[in-house]
Hints:
single chain, 10 helices, mainly alpha, 176 residues
Amino acid sequence: MQLSSELGKNKKHRKPWIKSQQRWTWIITILWMLIANLWPPFGLYGFVCMFTPIIIALSGRGKMSCARICPRGSFIGKFTGHISRKCSMPAWMHKKSFRFALWGLMMGSFILLMIWAVPKGIHTLGKTVLYFMEAATFIAFLTGIVFKPRSWCTICPMGFTSGNIRELLNKNYKNR
């Protein structure tokens, strides 16, 4: 009886999930890269893809962005499905220490690139965001070919950040 009442309480506090947009959000990745390569300041819209998962996680919806919206995840899933080797990733890649190291490497690199690019102006800043995201997409694409199509999604730094935010919010909610 107590279990069912606890489930009912948790259901009341859940935020509604949006319907998955994964069927078409891959188009955003392609359009953004095309436009940003033609007009570099458009590369700054890459920040939307970076901050959306964080904002959604902070709203109490955890990794919903990864599961329902992520344009890169949609792109990788769509275009690596037929060419993927469909192998499992090694166990060490699933460890939190590896995901944290990858997060630190990518965030550290991004911060250093931003420190370098900001004084150079909006064109350089837009190109820098674009090149960084293109490199991450290329790595994600390779990961999808070598392993299962959306393997990148299990180690993605934005997904890692969203998951950690979810854990912190859940811990705070339980401590009330």
